[in-house]
Amino acid sequence: MARIGTKKNPAVVRVQTEDRAYEVLDYCTERGIQVLVGLEPNNDEDLTDIALALGAPVPAPPPVERRSAEKVSRNDPCPCGSGRKYKKCCLDRTASAG
Asked: To the nearest 10°, the Cα dihedral for 60, 29, 35, 39?
């Protein structure tokens, strides 16, 4: 995929006024960024693609909380709650599923 802000993949921005659209267009032209400017007076301004084209760091998504799976040994009670030992209950099911 082409880098954002190029002819094949122009930056897409949204502004509220025509004057602001010309400001953004001039700014991008000076820096060699290809841009499509949408005039949407009822929506918030969105200049994210320009920041990406300039190489600004994008905030990382929040870390995903991972649960560590408890290891079940053969002679422990089965985690399914059957009351039987793991080796006599679900051990064969997990071995065939993997």
From this structure: 110
